[in-house]
Specification:
It is built from 3 helices and no strands. It has 102 residues and is an all-alpha fold. The protein is elongated.
């Protein structure tokens, strides 16, 4: 008796609404990671955690140009930009005057 190749009840894709790969983190997780990076960046390693928050927030927004944006992702991007600017200003202010010539 044949095994019945191609006549099974399980067809691919299994659900019509979801055909993309589920190997990476979802958008809600990226938004939360971006928020955590942005808030932690105000206290330590702002020059590293600020851009990380921007990247995570931007990835959490998705590729769509229009439509509603997730609030945590937008907050992560905004706080990441502020955090990065403050960290760069702090680094500029910490530099010695005369670039070490005096």
């Amino acid at each position: 008796m044949m095994a019945g190749f191609g006549t099974g009840s399980r067809r691919l894709p299994r659900s019509r609404g979801r055909t993309w790969s589920r190997t990476g983190p979802d958008r809600a997780t990226l938004a939360v990671v971006g928020l955590v990076c942005a808030v932690a960046g105000f206290f330590v390693l702002g020059v590293v955690l600020g851009p990380a928050a921007i990247v995570c927030g931007r990835l959490a927004m998705g590729r769509t140009g229009a439509g509603p944006r997730p609030v945590p992702a937008v907050v992560a991007v905004v706080l990441g930009v502020i955090d990065t600017i403050l960290a760069v200003l702090w680094l500029i202010g910490a530099a010695p005057l005369g670039n070490g010539l005096l």
